[in-house]
């Protein structure tokens, strides 16, 4: 009774304040769930958070405060993320956290050594230490009971998590969350409950069933080059000057248009996965938020695997770290035999912090000229990766001006590739992975559409350029024909759009 009288008031206060934070803090756009089951799941998630923090201190009010701060932090981060890329916090975001200290320059956050981060962290640590000293512990008296409690509560939480991944609890979670519906679930149940439930659902899902393998018995075009252009959209859509590349695309590309990608301003891996596999979002289940977590590149129908079956050499060219997004491991599982990554560009010129797109394009042409047979090459550019911060380019501090400077380099790279491939029988496809996360380009800009172009060289029967707007996965399915796989049905030409 003494334990309950000490713990329950702190728990009740934590539940009430956490619910108020989510109700009035703008964590979701959907209505706040008031049904008994919805409230039960919401409060149950807060209770689990409180028990988790209680394990570390056995001080109920400290655990309650930790829960409130956790919920407030989640809501704040979710709001910031929504403002920048139009999507709330998702469970898969936590898998990306190890990248932040390794590659802090890729994120809009200061390093941990910055006073902005280190100062509040130190103050928080000292406040917790002081509270820890002032609030009495609820641990039972005596070494035996205290040890049993310290081991028993964590064991109970671990057992609950394990049980939630097996029937009958897993079946109840699946019935409650049959498919991803992020906005609705956060509104009904709260952010902590949704994060926990989606993680459990992803864990419970086996590998999603891939589409049936397409026939691939002989090479298509001897050279197939697919390039994912970092943050690429037609700069005129952002108020920039006309890019010569866009006129080249409209007059020389076999197909071009807007490409509807799975996210705005981030999540490169979603577009990458969609194009390389041709799989739509509905086939990925709860792995839709980070397809690399779902399958890690183990995709029997990826373009690289189809190309290898057809006799192509497969190469992945990317002038950045092998560990970022676990790209080296993922690309090997996708079916790329040879990886050309950051170490191969040690002497390449840089524009800002990253290898220039023009240098990357010239390395791609070198790969084409030195090939020993049919070649399928996938490349990911890096020059125009955000964030666009002051000091990135000499004399250019405005983020949009920096972006436009880099996108001009992207244009020159593609122009050089078009000129360099003119004597080949080849296909070149370029596409933007997502719109840039700029202050002048927030969610809602053009939906989630980037731009793409498909060039065909050495085809005397090629017709005039056609405007065809596609989704990223549809582009991936159309590209199957270029490596000799069974082609998807042709898409109708789209009417001209602004």
UniProtKB/TrEMBL annotation:
One of its GO terms (cellular component) is plasma membrane. InterPro entries: Alkaline_phosphatase_core_sf, OpgB/LTA_synthase_biosynth, Sulfatase_N. Pfam families: Sulfatase. It is a multi-pass membrane protein. It is found in: Cell membrane. Its main location: membrane. The chain crosses the membrane at residues 43-76, 112-134, 146-164. The keyword Membrane applies. It comes from the Bacteria. Residues 222-439 form the Sulfatase N-terminal domain. Keywords: Cell membrane, Membrane, Transmembrane, Transmembrane helix. This is Sulfatase N-terminal domain-containing protein. The lineage of its organism: Bacteria, Pseudomonadati, Pseudomonadota, Alphaproteobacteria, Hyphomicrobiales.
């Amino acid at each position: 009774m003494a334990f309950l009288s000490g713990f329950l008031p702190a728990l009740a206060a934590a539940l009430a304040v956490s619910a108020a934070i989510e109700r009035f803090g703008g964590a979701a756009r959907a209505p706040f769930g008031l049904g008994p089951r919805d409230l039960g799941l919401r409060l149950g998630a807060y209770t689990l958070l409180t028990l988790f923090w209680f394990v570390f201190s056995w001080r109920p009010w400290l655990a309650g405060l930790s829960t409130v701060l956790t919920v407030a932090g989640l809501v704040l981060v979710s709001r910031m993320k929504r403002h920048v890329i139009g999507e709330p916090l998702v469970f898969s975001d936590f898998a990306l956290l190890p990248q932040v200290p390794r590659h802090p320059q890729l994120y809009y956050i200061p390093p941990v050594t910055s006073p902005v981060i280190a100062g509040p962290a130190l103050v928080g640590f000292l406040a917790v230490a002081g509270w820890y000293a002032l609030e009495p512990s609820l641990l039972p008296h005596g070494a035996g009971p205290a040890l049993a409690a310290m081991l028993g509560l964590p064991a109970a939480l671990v057992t609950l998590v394990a049980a939630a991944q097996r029937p009958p609890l897993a079946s109840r979670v699946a019935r409650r969350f049959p498919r991803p519906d992020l906005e609705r679930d956060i509104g009904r149940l709260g952010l902590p409950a949704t994060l926990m439930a989606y993680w459990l659902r992803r864990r419970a899902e086996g590998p999603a069933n891939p589409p049936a393998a397409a026939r691939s018995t002989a090479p298509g075009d001897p050279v197939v080059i697919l390039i994912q252009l970092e943050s690429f959209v037609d700069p005129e859509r952002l108020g920039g000057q006309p890019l010569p590349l866009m006129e080249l695309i409209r007059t020389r590309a076999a197909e071009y248009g807007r490409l509807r990608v799975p996210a705005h301003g981030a999540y490169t891996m979603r577009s990458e996965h969609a194009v390389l596999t041709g799989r739509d979002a509905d086939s990925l289940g709860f792995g839709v938020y980070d397809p690399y977590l779902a399958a890690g590149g183990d995709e029997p129908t990826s373009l690289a695997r189809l190309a290898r079956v057809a006799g192509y050499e497969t190469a992945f060219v990317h002038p950045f770290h092998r560990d970022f997004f676990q790209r080296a491991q993922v690309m090997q599982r996708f079916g790329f035999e040879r990886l050309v990554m950051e170490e191969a560009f040690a002497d390449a010129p840089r524009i800002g912090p990253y290898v220039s797109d023009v240098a990357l394009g010239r390395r791609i042409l070198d790969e084409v000229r030195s090939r020993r047979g049919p070649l399928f090459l996938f490349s990911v550019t890096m020059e125009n990766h955000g964030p666009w911060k002051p000091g990135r380019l000499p004399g250019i501090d405005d983020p949009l001006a920096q972006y436009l400077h880099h996108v001009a380099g992207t244009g020159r790279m593609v122009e050089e590739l078009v000129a360099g491939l003119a004597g080949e029988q080849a296909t070149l496809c370029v596409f933007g992975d997502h719109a840039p996360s700029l202050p002048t380009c927030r969610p809602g800009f053009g939906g989630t559409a980037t731009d793409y172009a498909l060039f065909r060289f050495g085809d005397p029967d090629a017709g005039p350029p056609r405007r065809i707007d596609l989704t990223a996965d549809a582009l991936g399915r159309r590209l199957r024909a270029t490596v000799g796989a069974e082609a998807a049905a042709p898409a109708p030409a789209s009417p001209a759009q602004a």
